Amino acid sequence: MILGGSLVGGALVVGYTATHPMAVAGALLSGGGVDPEPSAFGPYIRVAPDGAVTVVNRQQELGQGIHAGMAAMIAEELDADWSRVTVVTARSNFRAYGPQASVGSRSISTNWDLMRTAGAAARAMFVGAAAQRWQVPPRLLAVRDGVVSHQSSSRSATFAELLTDAARQTPPQRPTLKSVSDYRLIGTERVRRKDSAPKSTGAQIYTQDVRQPDLLIAMVAHSPRLGGKPARYDPSDARKVSGVVDVFAIETGVAVVAESTAAARRGRDALRVEWDDSAAERRSSPELVRYYHDLAAGRGDVSPSDFAMKGDAPETPFRGDVVEFAFDFPYLAHAPMETLDCVAAVRGWDVSITSGAHLPSIDQVQAALTARTIPGRVDLEVIPAGGSFGRRGVMSADYVVECVRIARRTNGRPVKMIWTREDEMMAGYFRPMSHHRLWVQMGDDGLPQRWRIHTVCQPLVPIGPNSQAIEGIDGSPYFATASTVDGKVFSPSFAVPPSFWRSVGHSHGGFVMEHVIDQLARRAGRDPAAYRRTFYERAGDKRRLALLDTLCRRAGWGEPLGGGWARGIAIHETYGTLVGQVAEVRLEHGRPRVRRVVAVADCGIAVAPDQIRAQMEGGIGFGLSAALFGAVTLRDGIVQQTNFDSYPVVRMSDMPAVETHIMPSADRPTGMGEPGVPPIAPAIANALLALTGHPTRSLPII
Predict the structure, then answer these.
(1) Which residues contact residue 647 at a Cβ distance below 8 angstroms, ignoring those fewer than 6 apart?
(2) Which of 247, 311, 460, 526 could pair with 531 in a Cys bridge, judged by C-beta atoms 3.0 to 4.6 Å apart?
(3) Is the peptide bond before 429 cis (omega within 30 degrees of 0)?
């Protein structure tokens, strides 16, 4: 519901809200303080006196480029001058914006109606102002690039000239939205990132760059074992370091607070800490893998839950031609370029935070609980983050909580807490390791008749079903020919902290299904693309069939390659976006080399085509790193990978040429931040299967 427009500080502000119970709860939690932005649900549009338009983005910009798409949705309906549109990030404010979180590649899709409606309402207000001024019907007026015009009288006025009168208009409750055929901005190459220049020149401010008066720097000594806690410590040597202000224990370790980063680092290095490992994980990775295998075989201490039930009763014996598969996937680090950091100050009931927050609403609540205040007294300034891939989106808000705990001990002085790369790699959180075991009973036609799947994976959410563990498996189109599907999930819990990782369960579930189906195709003597077509036809999945046709045509599927190269195909849907990839691979000195990836995306209306291509390329690079190299391993509960020397990522010389093709669509948009990740690993594995005849049973490949 539109609440209204107002002229605030010389700028026209249009805001929206939703009348639901959470909004009421948010108002109560706000403590009656003044919102950082005017209007009950926050303004998404500001028009300055000179006619320039600022779009307020309630989502976080983590490098995925959604700010440009958000602005384009408003600018399209507003008919603003795109060259004069800028974007700012909203502070965390539940009452103003509702829950703020960038998850599941949903920023564009969940704001599609909201942003367009905001732009259309603002446009109607400018049209209404011009209609009153010229005494003409609004339907005879046109808007283009921030100018309202009446063609028959040759009159026109800019947004700047109409601003005061527009502010007096009552915004329409249901403004008319454009049809897709009338778009001049959305879906064009004009929608490019608006932060490229500051990021290229170093002018972009990240948390590491924040400077405040009396700012202290803090570092925390964490237990080398995951789950360990400080038992005793000797701060005497640390306190002798010049610049060290204080040393004290917090729940997660021992904090060293200093006047500079160098002093904090030297002080932490001088600490002597004895750790309590009574609740810590002490097993090594091979032991955990064996434990997972035992669970999947029914030999363990974890009771499973069922999923994807179809047909016969669970555990009905399979007979005849039965094929068994098993896959192991390791822990993975997020490893964003910007390590974890946060700035916080606690002054009585009031908490101020500056952070590249991934889940601002969660961080705000967790900070309030830590500081023993209410969320409305926590002012969270959200600034861009140098990557996250899920690491800054931990539900416990671990690093924000850690910073607030430290800030409670500094007598109101602000604190910047910094994690080094080694801190981030060794202290968690990680994409959980997983094990998948499958049994497939085949029919005489070479198609699966019955499926049995056992998945072992730590849960990412402490309550409810472990649905993330089976993303990419549950509801697979490859079940279309089967009369029976029997799935079980085993959800062990121990001290290694798991977390959401870019594409979450799809990163391993997608591999399982796409590599299994290739193996079944080759076992049946069928072309892998044609074999997939059979399932899509049985499922009546026209969307997958269209994408498969486009992918095969664009990739030259079936055409000879020569030179020891082979193609592998994978098609997977992640959070509503369907992506197909064909990878060209050969073995060089026993290692796979990927020279070309052809990708096709069906993501609904392509709001920002250039950004879709960028996210596909980034997702492929991210997934390629995991497929070839990525693994976090434990020895006696201690992480063995501490930096990029032991946790390598793809370099420019490893990166293939990527060709991205976008399926034309008039459907509402879906996201692209994560869907490019899952298909690349199985596409490579399927190419290697074509080359060698050997399946890939575990990752990483190298």
Answers:
(1) 333, 335, 425, 629, 630, 631, 632, 641
(2) 526
(3) yes
- Spell out the residues 6+ positions from residue 76 whose beta carbon is closer than 8 angstroms to its own: 116, 119, 178, 183, 184, 185, 186
For the chain, give the mean pLDDT. 91
Q: Give the pairing type, strands 657-662 and 591-602.
A: parallel
Structure tokens given for 305: 């839950």
Q: What tokens does 154 get? A: 């040759």
pLDDT tens per residue, range 24-71? 233 323 332 333 444 322 368 988 899 999 999 888 888 888 889 999
**Closest among 609, 600, 598, 550 to 577, alpha carbons compared:** 600
Last residue of a domain, one of 196, 219, 253: 196
The closest alpha carbon to 17, from 82, 114, 137, belongs to: 114
DSSP bridge pairs for 657: 596
Q: Would you list the DSSP string of 610-622?
A: HHHHHHHHHHHHH
Q: Which two tokens stand for residue 606?
A: 């392509």
Q: Please give the pLDDT value at position 504.
A: 97
Question: From CA 250, how far away is CA 239, in angstroms rounded?
Answer: 17
Q: What's the pLDDT tens digit per position in 503-533?
A: 999 999 999 999 999 999 999 999 999 999 9
Q: Sheet containing 253-258: which strands, arranged edge to edge? A: 244-250, 253-258, 216-221, 415-418, 341-347, 350-355, 378-382
Which residue, 392, 418, 444, sits at the end of a domain? 418
pTM above 0.85, yes or no: yes
Is 119 part of any domain?
yes
Q: By C-alpha distance, which of 109, 19, 93 is closest to 58?
A: 93
- Give CA–CA dist 295/663, Å, rounded: 42
Q: What is the CA radius of gyration of the chain?
A: 27
The residue segments making up the domain with residue 604 are 434-692
CATH code: domain of residue 613:
3.30.365.10
